[in-house]
Design brief:
A seven-stranded mixed beta sheet has the order 1-3-2-4-11-5-12, with helices on both faces. Strands 8-7-9-6-10 form a five-stranded mixed beta sheet, with helices on both faces. It has eleven helices and twelve strands. The chain is an alpha/beta fold. It has two domains: 195 residues, Bordetella uptake gene, domain 1 (D-Maltodextrin-Binding Protein, domain 2, 3-Layer(aba) Sandwich), CATH 3.40.190.150; 114 residues, D-Maltodextrin-Binding Protein, domain 2 (3-Layer(aba) Sandwich), CATH 3.40.190. Helix 1 packs parallel to helix 3. Belongs to the UPF0065 (bug) family.
Length: 331
Amino acid sequence: MSTQKFRHLRIVGAAGTALVLALTVAGCSTKTSSSGDKADTWKPSGQVHMVVPFSPGGGSDIFGRAVASGIQDNSSAKVTTENHEGGSGAVGYSFIRSKKGNGQYLLAAETSLIALPMTTKLGYTWKSFTPLMQLANDNNLLMVPADSKLKNLKDVVALAKKGKFRMGVSGTSSPDALVANLFQDESKVKFRKVVVQSGGEMVTQLLGGSLDGGILNPGEAGEQIKAGKLRAIGVFSDERLKGSLSDIPTAKEQGIDVSFGQWRGIFGPPDMTDAQIKYWTGVLKKYSESADYKKYVKQNDLVSDVKEPAAFKKYLSSYADQVKQALPSGS
């Protein structure tokens, strides 16, 4: 992996809804031109911006930084990773939308890009952006503090029936929130949901005792599992994970018929040119074939799943139907 340093910026949506709306309106502006863009060939000129729509420390942040590093190792591009957090991802999505046609900007995306516009009136959907490549599928674990008396999902259900289970979720339309909804519906219980800004914050609150449990990706929870500070008591997948997490039973094994994963991929702004799409697809393809990509997948217990633009779009359309079923009724 390249030893070259790249800057990390953190931009917080402090103005909330007003900022989101302002950026959304900006997305309707005239197409931005990028130097070096010709009819058939294009390559970035100057700084490339990898936008992560959540705060540092979570699965999206880990993914965005891994891909940014991979881009630098497989091209001449210089990449800055920026955290545009706020509004459950809306600040980052609206920022990317405002860069219409500008190939210098990339988005580290996942399930929330599909789910959030279904629950919040934003003026756009995932189809408003440019899918470039899916790179992996991620899993969801139910985590509890290491000293918790909860040993399995049946214990969680029993505590929830008493109205006492505090479940961490990062927004109302995040992948973990969707899993929590499915878990509630299947078990006919209600969790006391506590909204956090990212997987990193959820880990902090679990360690601090503010939560009884939370749904995290292996990459978000792995270090704490190894350190013996958090325990995974269930994975929401059809099969058990491989490797060091293979001893975690699936929800289905425990009588909870819920399986829901999330994709991770890279998008660009609206109205990218064919040349821009071709360039980034080529670079991302090289990264997906590299040793660093394989290391990222293994370290974060991901499932490698690479789809180029056409196949990625088809998959996203189908996945959107699954998301609708996982959203609360009335969304």
